[in-house]
Every structure is written in C-alpha cells, then in structure tokens.
TrEMBL record:
Coiled coil: none
A Pfam cross-reference name: Polyketide_cyc2
SUPFAM superfamilies cross-referenced by the UniProt entry: Bet v1-like
Protein name listed in UniProt: ATPase
CDD domains cross-referenced by the UniProt entry: PYR_PYL_RCAR_like (cd07821)
C-alpha cells in the first residue's frame, strides 16, 4: 500500500520557546487541542516528555497512544509514532518550530503513514489532514 503524506504549515505570533513548551507537555493538550484528556502513560528519558515517552490521548471514547521518537529542544524538532488509535500502519509525525525574523514561529507538522486496508490510505489522509490542520491552528493560537 502506498505511503500517504500530510504537510501542514501555519505561522504563530507566539515564540518558538512558548510553543515548544505547550507542544511537548502532554498535560497541556486538553486545554488547547481537541482532546478531552491527555497523560503520560510512561515517561521518557532523560526528559520526562522526551524520547521513549508514551502519551495517551482521549477524545470521547477514542484513545490514541503515541511514542515520542525525537525530542530536540535546541532545534525544536519533536516526532512521534502512533502505537494505536488510528486505522493506519507506520504512522510518524515530525513537528518543527522555526523562528520568524521579527518574532513569531512557523509550525510545520509533517505526517506519513500507510493504510491498513487496500484503498484506505487516501480516505484516512483526508480525515487526518483536517484534524491535523485544526490541531496546528490551535497550537498556533497559544501564547496570543
């Protein structure tokens, strides 16, 4: 099955440091993202929210689990792999926060995955693209 890709970019007036703090601290997600609850199932090392952390996100009765695979505060690069909760295989998302000259941040959220069933990928990409676009807009609004 063909790999599907999503690439979404939005600018924010908030600083990269502010957005990094919000993005990487899963306990903040219910306040700004489209999730009812979010928690660490297992902390990362050496940073609590860093590489190896398993995050549990709940929206209604739907639970998503993801594992942090990149946590680089210096370059503001954060990446995770989905463990369960979305009907896809090999899902990985990379989020980067780039400073804008004069202030603000460009948020770039890139995802790639494969559908579990033949022909499923494009439909899931359509749904995930809308969800991730909303998520990035909500992140961009933090610190305003």
């Amino acid at each position: 099955m063909a790999e599907q890709r999503i690439d979404i970019t939005h600018d924010s007036p908030a600083s990269p440091d502010r957005l990094w703090a919000v993005l990487t601290d899963v306990s903040t997600w219910p306040r700004w993202a489209a999730f009812d609850a979010a928690e660490l199932e297992r902390p990362g090392a050496p940073e609590r929210d860093g590489v190896g952390a398993v995050r549990l996100l709940r929206r209604g009765r739907k639970i998503t689990r993801e594992r942090v695979v990149v946590f680089d505060p210096a370059s503001r690069h954060f990446a995770y792999e989905l463990l369960e909760g979305v009907p896809v295989r090999d899902y990985r998302a990379d989020v980067t926060l780039e400073p804008i000259p004069g202030g603000g941040t460009t948020i770039r959220w890139r995802s790639r995955f494969r559908g579990r069933l033949p022909g499923q990928g494009p439909m899931v990409r359509f749904v995930l693209r809308r969800f991730i676009d909303d998520l990035v807009k909500r992140l961009a609004a933090q610190g305003m």
